Amino acid sequence: RKEVEQDPGPFNVPEGATVAFNCTYSNSASQSFFWYRQDCRKEPKLLMSVYSSGNEDGRFTAQLNRASQYISLLIRDSKLSDSATYLCVPKGAGYNKLIFGAGTRLAVHP
Amino acid sequence: GAVVSQHPSWVICKSGTSVKIECRSLDFQATTMFWYRQFPKQSLMLMATSNEGSKATYEQGVEKDKFLINHASLTLSTLTVTSAHPEDSSFYICSARDQGSDSPLHFGNGTRLTVT
Lengths: 110, 116
Known about the structure:
By secondary structure, chain A is mainly β. Chain A has no helices and ten strands. The model of chain B has no long low-confidence stretch (mean pLDDT 91).
């Protein structure tokens, strides 16, 4: 089983739409979770950390379900600039490792 | 916020030559840095963990003699791709963490290597 699994997409949505991504992880010992976004041919940039109680940052809401080992990201009122690949990143076993999946591609169109 | 600088941003080299990529933490000290590689339309793959003052830890399948890592100071790690071949053409990205083990990674802007 892959350490991180995400629907690769692409998710094609119109501006203003609400879109949700899910991610499952296999390492039950993972303690920290993050969502990164990566634009084409660029480095990943941290979007938000994911806290156990769920957290919101503007139009973005992240949820964590430890029992089912999945993480979600909800984007409200999508903007064209939200078009990117979204990477769910649990901190893996050991002190430092972050394991990346292939991510979910989002394309927001006018 | 924490900044990681990577240089060069892109490089084109001939097959058989060596290429050095630098990764610097600009406003924090990083005892550990990470080197990733990403092929087109694929996920980031961790190549190795660079440890200041000691040997790097390589992931399975990554040749340590081909990808030389040096982490001589708390703010600089270098990756040297030795005897580069066209199949080494990829996007190489370094990263570092500025605080505790649960804080997120910050990435350099990446180096696009093309070997002709």
